[in-house]
UniProtKB/TrEMBL annotation:
NCBIfam families linked to this entry: Nramp_1
Species, as recorded: Rheinheimera baltica
InterPro entries assigned to the protein according to its UniProt record, in alphabetical order: NRAMP_fam
Keyword Transmembrane helix appears in the UniProt entry: yes
Name of the protein described by the UniProt record: Nramp family divalent metal transporter
Pfam family name, one: Nramp
Length: 421
């Protein structure tokens, strides 16, 4: 008999893993460029992305809690026809596993940039680089991510990522407060949607860095593990999951808004364009003092490290589920998947390799995958296996709206990918 008491009741839960996943170096760069180029004018796009993420992640969490399985396992059960099943599953593997391998290099590099800003180029780092040709920060960050996943149980990993999310919150929101944002302009940008000239791709990019398919795999599997059916009633688990989503996902949106605000305060209206995050950190010192630079650097370390943990974790959940393997951190396929992704990321980052072809493939695969996963999720949420927990009409309406947005994101991702050819 199910207990009505939640033994895992905490302030944050699996939704914090989603926040840790989407607030990575890519989001920091995208939000910084949006703030530098358009001021506070695109904050509304971040608010919409938070809303869309909450809609999809609630469905993913509900699916995991009610079925006790991850999204990969449910896709395997939902799509039975071989002409549809294997192409879809192969696409998921290509986009999630290979794509995350490519992006892992960016996660580790981003954390390394933050570490450089805090600690500088010490003699030890330079000597190591000269002797081995490898970046010591990349090795250290990769090693931390690997240790957390190798020795950690789910609860430990969750706590580590919650700590990183809180560090990002303090760092980026602290930086925003130090730079003294223009509150009226910020509120206008949040609640008066406009698209400035040339900002269409920036709008789609801001949404695309938040609404990502691999977070759905991560959230469904993590929710099934956080609230096992044998220890808590489904109704109580869903209540806890929705509270978790309502807290963690908007917090991630607030972090993104803080980054936009910081870049807007430092660069918007200036003649010098912003080209990278390092340049933003350098610009903060003369304008707002060294505290702002330290906050930004610590936030970048946390963003890179949190994504360096969640990207391989999500890939392992996806692949293990599709192959019908247990979602166990010590299961061989699960462990081998995240280990290979971390090693790939360390090598790409430490050797300075620009994996253009791999990233091109990942963009194409992800561009096709996002609307497909949204569609499959909607189909799963209307399946009879969910019983009374199927989507309601308004939940389907919201899901369809997000699906249409994902088609726009898909077009943008594919257009950028083919522009690289």
């Amino acid at each position: 008999m199910q207990s009505t008491k939640n033994p895992n009741k905490t302030l944050f839960g699996p939704a914090a893993l989603v926040t840790a996943a989407f607030i990575g170096p890519g989001t920091v760069v995208t939000a910084s460029l949006a703030g530098a180029n358009y001021g506070y004018g695109l904050v509304w796009a971040l608010l919409f992305s938070v809303f869309a993420t909450m809609v999809l992640q609630e469905m993913a969490a509900r699916l995991g809690i009610v079925t006790g399985r991850g999204l990969g396992e449910n896709l395997r059960a939902l799509v039975q026809h071989p002409l549809l099943r294997w192409p879809l599953l192969l696409l998921v593997v290509a986009a999630i596993v290979l794509g995350n391998s490519a992006y892992q290099g960016g996660n580790i590099s981003g954390a390394g940039l933050g570490a450089d800003a805090v600690f500088g180029d010490s003699g030890l780092l330079l000597a190591w680089k000269a002797h081995t040709g490898l970046n010591l920060w990349a090795l250290l960050i990769g090693a931390v991510a690997a240790l957390v996943l190798w020795f950690g149980q789910y609860k430990l990993i969750e706590r580590c990522l919650i700590a990183l999310v809180l560090l990002m919150s303090l760092a980026f929101i602290g930086t925003m407060l130090l730079t003294k944002p223009d509150i009226p302009a910020l509120l206008q940008g949040a609640f008066w949607p406009v698209i400035p000239s040339g900002a269409v791709l920036s709008v789609v990019a801001l949404i695309g860095t938040t609404v990502v398919p691999y977070s759905l795999f991560l959230h469904a599997a993590a929710s099934a593990q956080k609230w096992p059916k044998a220890t808590i009633s489904t109704a109580d688990a869903l209540h806890a999951a929705r509270q978790d989503i309502a807290l963690a996902i908007p917090l991630g949106g607030l972090i993104s808004i803080a980054i936009v605000s910081t870049a807007a305060a430092a660069f918007f209206g200036q003649q010098q364009p912003l080209e990278n995050v390092t340049q933003l950190a350098q610009a903060l010192t003369p304008l707002f003092g060294s505290a702002a630079t330290w906050c930004l650097a610590l936030g970048l370390i946390a963003a890179g490290l949190s994504s360096a943990i969640t990207a391989p974790l999500a890939a392992a959940y996806a692949l293990a589920g599709i192959l019908g393997k247990p979602l166990n951190l010590k299961q061989p396929v699960f462990r081998l998947t995240w280990l290979l992704i971390i090693i790939s990321g360390v090598l790409l980052s430490s050797l300075g390799i620009k994996p253009v072809k791999v990233i091109w493939f990942a963009q194409v695969a992800n561009g096709i995958l996002l609307p497909l996963i949204c569609l499959c999720l909607l189909l799963a949420m209307n399946h009879t296996m969910l019983g009374n927990y199927k989507n309601s009409r308004w939940q389907n309406a919201l899901g369809i709206m997000v699906l249409l947005v994902s088609l726009v994101l898909s077009g943008r991702s594919l257009a950028l990918a083919f522009a690289l050819v």
